[in-house]
Specification:
- There is one protein chain.
- The chain is globular and about 40 Å long.
- It is of the alpha+beta class.
- The longest helix has 13 residues.
- The protein has a single domain, classed as endopeptidase fold (from Nostoc punctiforme) (Alpha-Beta Complex), CATH 3.90.1720.10.
- It is built from five helices and eleven strands, in the order αββαββαβαβββββαβ.
- Strands 5, 6, 7, 8, 9, 10 and 11 form a seven-stranded antiparallel sheet that branches. Strands 1-2 form a two-stranded antiparallel sheet. The chain has a two-stranded antiparallel sheet with strand order 3-4.
Length: 156
């Protein structure tokens, strides 16, 4: 499904700036983050019904959401190119970048903006992301992930 760029940005901006999705610094100096809630909200606000764990009656955690996208080829198309992610997001498609983690993974939407960032860490140009995590901010993909993530085109 193709969306107007302004609608994609508005939905992502609202999720990223929601006070309920801001990171929480805990007493033990750890940080509680809400990338899974952000991905769920963006999906819902765009009319999709993704990232709800029916068996546990809650929003999926990041690793669960990644597994769900991997196992739902009729709803998501997985690919590996940051340039394809950039081009599709700027054409109006909802694209998620995601990386499985040992305990917690991370996922965020590619922010549709006509800007690329050169990443020395990843060795290429990368798109901007709507990060909801340790920092809720639009910045280069290289700041949100330690390695190149996988990308998922939301089909339905």
């Amino acid at each position: 499904m193709i969306f107007e760029i302004d609608r994609l940005k508005k939905v992502m901006d609202e999720a990223r700036n929601d006070p309920a999705l801001q990171p929480i610094k805990n007493k033990d100096k750890s940080v509680t983050t809400f990338c899974n809630l952000g991905a769920f909200r963006i999906s819902q606000d765009l009319g999709f019904n993704h990232f709800w764990n029916e068996g546990k009656d809650r929003i999926m955690l990041a690793n669960e959401a990644i597994k769900y996208m991997d196992e739902s080829p009729h709803q998501f198309s997985k690919f590996y190119s940051p340039m394809v992610a950039y081009n599709l997001a700027n054409a109006g498609y909802l694209i998620y970048a995601a990386q499985h983690g040992d305990i917690h993974g991370h996922l965020c939407a590619i922010y549709p903006i006509q800007e690329l960032v050169t990443s020395g860490k990843l060795g290429c140009q990368v798109p901007m992301v709507n990060n909801i995590g340790k920092e809720n901010k639009v910045f280069g993909l290289n700041w949100a992930f330690s390695e190149m993530p996988d990308f998922y085109l939301c089909i339905s």
